[in-house]
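Researcher: Here's a chain I'd like modeled. Treat it as a single chain, no partners, no ligands.
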Amino acid sequence: MNYQFDHLVLIARDQILAISNQLAKLGFNLTQLSKHNLGSSNQLCMLDSTYLEVLGWEYGTVPQRKEIANLAIGLDALVFKTTDAEQCFNHLQQAGFEPNPIQDLSRPALVNEQIQTALFKTVRFSVQPITGLRIYFCEHLTPDYLWFDSVTKHPNEKNHLQEIVIASPDPEHTTDLLHRLLNIAMPQPLKNSEYLMDLCNCVLRIKPEETLTVPQIEEVRISTIKISTTANSNLDQATQDLVINRNFFDL
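Model: Modeled as a single isolated chain. Structure tokens:
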């Protein structure tokens, strides 16, 4: 079972509107504020086949989801797309991981001026498979309520999540865990000891960083068009990238 990338979570705590406004200033349209059945709230920056989720709780309220209540503002979670949550759960167990029971998630979604209910199934972990990173899997039961023209077209014309950069004190170990999680071939290291994992709709770049004790999401690159990794393995040279790094969240 192979997985594509689904979305990147940006934890905003009670500053959802402030961080969404920062994204809007970069030229992105965002969906309206919406609240999940679990108590969290979000706004989305929808891209061609992925999205950025600004996640937290409304200002002046108490966080209802324990797993995000103590998280710091910033680049937070890697979410991978599955077409079958039950099969995903079974694969993760067979690969030696300990997923939580499948969770049902829903929220209102404004679709062409009509309120619909977006439905999801998620597979999460009580103990993360890669210390330092938050990872889970998502099955979209109503994808048409997320991806449609009016929300995927942006004034800056950038709508492809080209690359996510993960800095790690041990990039080989981090890449090996990702290869087991995602059931894809283990890539060969590049000359600079980096690893590129091509998920078809997004590239994960795992790079060495000796000053860290655990991996962290370093930055995300969004392009106007998808750039082929075979044509250009050094994505740092891509001229169409808009970069959102960890300093973006210094409010």
